[in-house]
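Why show two proteins at once? Because comparison is the fastest way to build intuition. When a single record is shown, students tend to memorize it. When two are placed side by side, the eye starts asking what differs. So, the first record is below.
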Amino acid sequence: MKYNFKSFDKEFPDDAACLEYIFKSRFPDQLCVCGKSHCFHRRTKRRAYACAFCGHQIYPTAGTIFHKSETSLKSWFFAIFLMAQSRNGVAAKELERQLGVTYKCAWRMAHQIRKLLASGLANKLMGVVEADEAYFGGIRPGKRGRGAAGKTPVVGLAERGGSVDAKVVDAVTTSNVFINIDRKVDRSASLYSDELAVYRYAPRFGFRHRKVNHGRGEYVRGDIHTNTIEGFWSQVKRSIGGTHHSVSRKYLQNYINEFSFRYNHRKDASLFASMVARVPSTLSEAA
């Protein structure tokens, strides 16, 4: 059964249900400092649980994206639900309208949620991995693509049939590209790219390298192409342009993380369930 608003409202009807979810997720053993377990009860008028024996208190939202937030937990969870329901993301103005909060509050909530989605890769990319770079910064006069003024470069990797990883960099240099590849790609993988000069160093790092020459109009040669990662770039750019319109360099990585998370969890039965499972994480864990 598809997870819809009716399902959401049944699972998280109020703040108490949301807090209970966070508490049980963060403290599954419910072990107290006094040695007792499963002895906590909810404190009224505060987001806390207290031990029935020693009075020790636990604040489940401490250190999370909800820390010191006066916005209701139900609103936070609903914001996550809205972001999960839209393939192209949700603008802060839409959250403002749906949640009945100020724009400043909606904007902050959206960025805090995006921080949770920076969970990284569970395993290194394997098999055939496509490498490519994209430039973000909107449409403007002058040179397009590589070398365009005022654009922010992002280097990306995509395992065919698997996950993607993308990182904002200062410049597309050999160092920036291969530091990321070395961390994210298994040495057994085959690296496919276009003709950009930095990728010619791939064999020195132990990778089997194949390329196509886009400059000469060659986009596919047998199974050698970069269509997977380029398809990801296309989706991200359409989403940012259509939903958010423009994104500053300062926050671009947050948006890249959001769309990478969507892509990597595209086969999940419920994207909302995958996103809300990150809720108990502290900000240090999510970073």
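Second record. Ask yourself what differs from the first in the token line.
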Amino acid sequence: MSPLALLALLAAVEPTVPQYDIESLRVRYTQYAQTGLGYQSAAGPPGKPGSEWLRVEQPQAEITARLGERVTERVWIPVDIVTAASPDHSRYGKPYDAVDTVTTASRSTPSATLDTFTTYRADRATDLTMRAGFHIEEPFESWIVGVGASRSFAEDNTVVGVSANQILDWFDRFDLDGNRHGRATRSTTNLNVDVTQVLSPTTLANVAYGGTLQAGELGNTWQSVMLDGGARGDERLPGHRFRHAAAARVAQWLPWDGALTLAYRIYLDSWGIAAHSAEGALAQRVLPGVVLRASYRFHVQSAPGFFTTAAAPNGTGFRTSDSDLGPFHAQTFGGAVVVDLPVARHAHDLHVDIGFERYVRSDSLRVDVSTCGLGFRF
């Protein structure tokens, strides 16, 4: 066979490359500003809780594209610029040579994540999904892979979904004096199932369950515990943690061009923590393309048996002073303005939203979250 004939044959059997179309492009900027005191922080007077001051600047981008008739690809890239004064012991006259007791990363550090989510439409009622992601910061790296499937029944009035995710974290191990002791690992295996049901032409309900098994080093290795007498010791956590969460949500269309969403979530884990969350959100269209949103969330949780604010210096069991693991109740108040406008030529519409949330916790922690998003749908 001549070279020209061979090229003609290859061209004839070469598969057609599916068309690659950008469906949407979104960018967002979010700022987290945290204040408060916690016993796990040494950034305070001896024998007293320390500062939990933290600020995060997070720009992010999301691209959704369609490859042919069956494949949809979503790529999400958030970048965090973290400034955390709470672990910076040098601000409080501690006798350490380094900038802080751990690493300069605990003072200010950038981090980035690449998260991809691929959906394959097997048939009209079945979607298969695959997730792959990578996160990096000083001194921490994380990998995630996941698979899932969803199928609709009863003329699409019922949708059942299942998913599984595996996360591996790899990070430096430090002691309270900032000395590095090799690397530590943590494994997180997560399984989820959810059912969405159309209850009426104006009502939608969803129930979901997620189970998670964590194993390995479950702390950050440098977090401290308050001891009797005002000194500080290392945090000691179990090597395994089983976590269970179940949630129910109902969305109701309102006849005055609004929507109400109510949700409840219960959480239990093998450390003895129990938590309950109730949430409500109201969306109201005030002008064509303009929607106002308001939300409220109440959360209450108990502490594990090894939570303490004054551990025995010679104790050998598990112990933590982490305020996130302690007993507290919290409230979140939020609001947003959402604008969707038609645009000409290259895009179908322009999406703009501006929002604010305030998180208030009974143990003095406060977080203000400001966000602004911009997106095009093509």
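One difference worth noting in the second protein: The domain at 18-377 is CATH 2.40.160.40 (Porin).
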